[in-house]
Write a structure and sequence with these properties.
It is built from ten helices and nine strands. The protein is an alpha+beta fold. α2 packs parallel to α6. It is globular, with a radius of gyration of 24 Å.
């Protein structure tokens, strides 16, 4: 096939630049006490704009995670395989301390420098920023229960990315994810139906479902128990003790494909063992014995809570002729 004409009106590939070449960002670093981190932020920005890292991002996006429910011997494993490029991105983010450096190094401006690093690095590929930021958020929640923080915080703050399903306390570093949203899709945790029942040994038996999970690693999820709604730590590798802390639904692979940037999965927590962490707020939903949400009781509870706060709305419009309005 002969050439048609020379194409000269296309922009060249955007590589070999620095995402940290941002005057407003650098000015804010110095203004608010993070000037000591400028060199690290600049180095990370140059790496984010490199051809190598952009190739990682392209390959990670083009190859969605794959759910493997069983190994070749037929054993249930519920493991999610990620493309190596995804792990390269994660390792670089962890090595640069974007996940937890301010918690391990109490330095003025530390949180600002971490935020600046996250800002310049996420421009290469934003999806893996979810477990990175969730790890950052998990540490203060764990500190609400010092005995948990003593074991897990040093590993969460480690700059070694050690992926794979193994007992968490035997790894060189940990990453945390979040499982919160349920099938009703709202962010109102008062409507969640996941239950947490004390097992008598310091752990809780969690039963419920989570519609989205950020990167299936060690995670925390809210569950309502007798002392209110708390965030529970659910180590993935608890399955090595003969318990499956969660079952990734068969739709997990579909969920990953539909939301490639956030690397989301879907979990069904079936009698998983969890450890209580920080309080997530007062319990606001009621549950029936089958674990399903009782909407009528929740409506009555919310109605009492908000009674008198809002002005009465307009009277309902009459139903059209021949249409019988449903009541009750």
């Amino acid at each position: 096939m002969s050439a048609t004409h020379e194409v000269f009106n296309q922009a060249p590939p955007l590589t070999g630049f620095s995402t940290a070449d941002d005057p407003a960002l650098l000015e804010a670093l110095h203004r608010d006490g993070g000037g000591w981190g400028e060199a690290e932020v600049r180095a990370l920005g140059e790496r984010a704009g490199s051809q190598e890292v952009q190739d990682w991002a392209r390959m990670a996006e083009a190859t969605p995670p794959v759910l493997r429910t069983h190994d070749r011997y037929g054993h249930r494993i519920d493991e999610v395989d990620f493309h190596p490029a995804w792990h390269h991105l994660m390792a670089a983010a962890v090595e640069s301390g974007q996940h937890a450096a301010p918690w391990a190094e109490a330095r003025p401006g530390g949180h600002l420098v971490r935020a600046a690093k996250f800002y310049v690095w996420a421009q290469a590929e934003p999806g893996h920023g979810c477990p990175i930021s969730m790890t950052y958020a998990a540490v203060p929640a764990l500190r609400a229960q010092p005995e948990l923080a003593a074991h897990y915080e040093p590993l969460l703050a480690s700059r070694t990315y050690d992926y794979g399903l193994r007992p968490p306390l035997g790894k060189r570093g940990l990453i945390a994810g979040m499982s919160m949203t349920e099938k009703q899709g709202g962010s109102d945790v008062r409507a969640n139906t996941t239950t947490a029942v004390p097992a008598g040994d310091g752990t809780y038996v969690l039963t419920g479902h989570k519609w989205f999970t950020s990167a299936p690693h060690e995670r925390r999820l809210p569950g309502a128990g007798p002392d209110g709604c708390r965030a529970h730590l659910l180590p993935d590798a608890a399955r090595t003790a003969g318990r499956h802390p969660q079952r990734h639904a068969a739709a997990a692979a579909e969920g990953q494909a539909r939301q490639p940037l956030q690397r989301l999965g879907r979990d069904r927590v079936r009698a998983g063992r969890g450890l209580a962490g920080g309080r997530a707020g007062a319990r606001g939903a009621h549950h029936r014995r089958d674990g399903q949400h009782d909407p009528s009781r929740l409506r009555r509870r919310l109605g009492r809570r908000h009674a008198g706060r809002a002005a009465p709305g307009p009277a309902p419009r009459p139903a059209p002729a021949g249409v019988r309005r449903r009541t009750g």
